[in-house]
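Progress report, Aim 2. The chain analyzed during this reporting quarter is listed below.
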Amino acid sequence: MTVATITKPPLSWYVIIYMALIHGIALFALLPSNFSWTAVGLAIVLHWVTGGLGVTLGFHRLVTHRSFQTPKWLEYFFVFCGTLACQGGPIQWVGLHRQHHLYSDKPQDPHDSHEGFWWSHMQWMFHDIEPNKHIARFTKDINEDPFYVFCQKYFIPIQVAVGLLLFAFGGWPFVVWGIFVRLVAVFHSTWFVNSACHQFGYQSHDSGDRSTNCWWVALLTYGEGWHNNHHAYQYSARHGLQWWEIDLTWMTIHLLEILGLATNVKLVNSEVNS
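Predicted structure tokens for the chain:
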């Protein structure tokens, strides 16, 4: 009797080395010579700029789901902020996330949670997964836009340029905290949405998958932890649907709406929030 074996896709050593270097250099923050409260404050502000305005608001709610619209210059600003998170370029990020929603918790999902916590958290990136081959099909609205193409191709040189700028202003402490510690923090905050929010927390809606609402992930990701709400109503610019589900990104979008910078804001019917 022959027993079938399931093999993982081949390893992507480029990604493995890339992640190992960033995490390894971040450890230099433990040296007293690299510590300053100004550098820590810089990391916190850049965490919000890149992870909050960039990934959460820009890559995710604005571009991936088109939950609202902004003037093109402002869209490009948010996309640039997301590019600084170094989670791949915006075209790849959006393409993989759209596939995640289409095949959530199924084998075609890039980070299928049935494969375990660590697979959905980060191990999936260490392999040349099948969904990478279909990114162009899922990003027809952006993959020929010159600005998106530029950010996709040059997100690492852009980060190097920011690092040189930070070194000029604050030396190695600014580089270690403002680039590497911040990148690691944003990485894992984002990854917890893929892992923890398909393992822990509660479900308010039947979304057809394992997505959950997880309060502590929502705090780390400016509202992305209300993941079951999001999977149930993917079009909604607001993820925290109950009064206690604090959603800082929605507050930012609403502020932009008041200022006339966000239009066609899509929301869930009011009955769902009651």
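Residues 13-268 form one domain. Residues 1-5 have pLDDT under 50 and may be disordered. These observations will guide the mutagenesis work planned for the next reporting period.
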